Amino acid sequence: MTTIGFIGSGRIGGALAQLAVAAGHDVVLSNSRGPQSLQEIVAQLGSRAQAASTTEAAAAGDMVVVTIPVRAYRQIPVAPLRGRVVIDTLNYDPARQGAVPEIEASGIPPHLLLQAHLPDTYVVKAFSTVFFQHLPQLARPAGAPDRSAVPIAGEHVPAKAAVAALIDSLGFDAYDVGTMAESRRFAPGTPAQLAYLHPDGMFAAPARPASAADLAALLEKAN
Length: 223
Ligand SMILES: NC(=O)c1ccc[n+]([C@@H]2O[C@H](COP(=O)([O-])OP(=O)(O)OC[C@H]3O[C@@H](n4cnc5c(N)ncnc54)[C@H](OP(=O)(O)O)[C@@H]3O)[C@@H](O)[C@H]2O)c1
Known about the structure:
There is one protein chain. The chain is α/β, with parallel strands linked by helices. It has one domain: NAD(P)-binding Rossmann-like Domain (Rossmann fold, 3-Layer(aba) Sandwich), CATH 3.40.50.720. 33% of the residues lie in helices and 17% in strands. The chain has helices spanning 11-22, 39-45, 54-60, 94-97, 101-106, 110-117, 134-138, 157-170, 212-221; strands at 3-7, 26-30, 49-51, 63-66, 85-88, 122-125, 149-154, 173-178. β7, α8 and β8 form a beta-alpha-beta unit. It is globular. The structure holds NADP nicotinamide-adenine-dinucleotide phosphate (NAP). Residues 7-13, 30-33, 37, 54, 67-70, 72, 75, 89-91, 93, 128, 131-132 line the site of NADP nicotinamide-adenine-dinucleotide phosphate. NADP nicotinamide-adenine-dinucleotide phosphate is lined by residues 7-13, 30-33, 37, 54, 67-70, 72, 75, 89-91, 93, 128, 131-132.
């Protein structure tokens, strides 16, 4: 089993932590307000969960999920993440989560900002396409006929393999889209990013499973 650190423990962080604990992993949660503010979610998650500072969560994780508003990326601790596998869930959403001057000025994607901030860290983009409420709805055991695939991207093949194994344990198939640059094919606004949304109800409707074949067809549309 794996210890997963969380930088950010909000909607996506909380939902992923729940799946991780259910799969038998340990989780170390952190946020901007400090461990005291995480007592309630830690109590809900049970004995496999603990709260910590961001530096402690980064150091504790065999893998670390970075799941914060992009505007806060400079506050991610750098030193403890060196040599580690980091899962990047980030989408840029200035209206809801605040603008980032360098993105506004140049359109640089958030994964490049994160990669520049975290040298020597093996960043894998994953779970940026799943609405947080849909994560528990879509998780299935391995081999289930309606199991969903989630796209991943990154430069480092062993890191992607480690993240794919984690994703499998959480109830999804990982679909490797390629290098980090290829994550543009599942960026916000692309067909693949809408894979699990029911066209009639969108976010309000129950999630719609999407297989690897479904995902491949949607990713193709962004070429
Ligand atoms: N919501 C979704 O369905 C969804 C889906 C896919 C991808 N995403 C992406 O995933 C990321 C997280 O989204 P979310 O919806 O989970 O956001 P959220 O509910 O607002 O949670 C954000 C978390 O980040 C923490 N945080 C903020 N600034 C921080 C800092 N400087 N250091 C450490 N932690 C910090 C917050 O802690 P405090 O509360 O203490 O400030 C909170 O725990 C975003 O980039 C979003 O675009 C979201």
